[in-house]
């Protein structure tokens, strides 16, 4: 099977790579672990909270929270995962459509043994994913993911996992009231209201389609909500944090003070200032970190960021007496660095920001609230706060390719990357890395000359895509239109 888990769970085209059979097997493997199968060292962990026993007086047994985004395929995969979990003897509590960070927060607070999120985040509508978190609400460590993968692989031969019968089969409940607990949690955290503020909210037709507008209305904002559909047919399509231009237009047209855009599972937030300019995750980190530095509330006087973060973030923090800790791409690496070094703030340019004092992962709704609260406390408009961070010209392009890892070893690819590095010199940088969640290679070029940066990025992408086509032809035994002997 190869490595099943990527940097953010299991992803693929729903009903193809991510089939109902695979979802069922993942559910069975997870259910077996939470009900005590294995060597005792491998289990996902049980919460000390009584959970189901406190509600129905049956003997306590582990239960797993399951939530989805709005994708058309999410119901199919939720049913398959639920069947797998209950077939191994775990109860399932269905939460309905809910942001990924809400699930992470709810798992320990509800006393669940684990949580399963059906979502492909910012990916296209045809994709979907399965994310599993442990009883503590954090993503699974590598050793648990490896165990689950081995267990799923073994099901191709003989399924040796427990098969309870009768009253021992897992039960399924639907408890949407936990969504209210999450909203109340966020409202308690913000410590202020936004009376008199007009706020545009772009929900990407995804998991935040109901909660985000409701949250801000309860905090007094005049909310202009767009892309609030729940059909799943247009999640992330031309909207949300990956396409903030529509929200920017609405901010300008409506005279809003600020705009907030989320992705399909609402773990990201990209903001729009009152002038309609995009404020990305690096700028949000800068605003929040600088405020904490001024008040002495930033442990380690540093934030964790990835190699893709704009160089202007490090510059502004160093001038203020702070610094950045640089990690490989992916929120998993950011979180690991934060836990290792005792940091409370970190994130990515994409708007995936972690406030570790309040959340176990990036939370788009929380990020939006923390940004609005910083605006409220400062008295400055968002355009002014965002301008504190200089922005180095930076271009990030995706090359859609096959064979991501082997492609980077091709001579023509290495040559174009080395040529770009020479052209940039010490005044810039280039990063070429395979995505951990999509079939693309990401090309980031940063430097003082925007035209040069854009040209170099396009050249690298063109070579990557051409080399990918050549490799595909060779793998099919075709070279320049002729079959190889």
Automatic annotation (TrEMBL):
UniProt KW keywords: Isomerase, Magnesium, Metal-binding, Phosphoprotein
Modified residues (Phosphoserine): 121
Cofactor note: Binds 1 Mg(2+) ion per subunit.
Domain of life of the native organism: Bacteria
UniProt KW Flavoprotein keyword: no
GO molecular function per UniProt: phosphoglucosamine mutase activity
Catalytic activity: alpha-D-glucosamine 1-phosphate = D-glucosamine 6-phosphate
Catalytic site positions: 121
Residues that, per the record, bind Mg(2+): 121, 263, 265, 267
Ranges for domain Alpha-D-phosphohexomutase alpha/beta/alpha: 59-155, 181-276, 280-392
CDD domains: GlmM
Record PTM text: Activated by phosphorylation.
Gene3D superfamilies in the record: Alpha-D-Glucose-1,6-Bisphosphate, subunit A, domain 3, Alpha-D-phosphohexomutase, C-terminal domain
The EC number(s) this enzyme carries: 5.4.2.10
Cofactor(s) annotated in UniProt: Mg(2+)
Domain Alpha-D-phosphohexomutase C-terminal: residue ranges: 396-462
Pfam families: PGM_PMM_I, PGM_PMM_II, PGM_PMM_III, PGM_PMM_IV
Family: Belongs to the phosphohexose mutase family.
Function statement: Catalyzes the conversion of glucosamine-6-phosphate to glucosamine-1-phosphate.
HAMAP family to which the protein is assigned, alphabetical: GlmM_B (MF_01554_B)
Stated name of the protein: Phosphoglucosamine mutase
Organism encoding this protein: Geochorda subterranea
Lineage: Bacteria, Bacillati, Bacillota, Limnochordia, Limnochordales
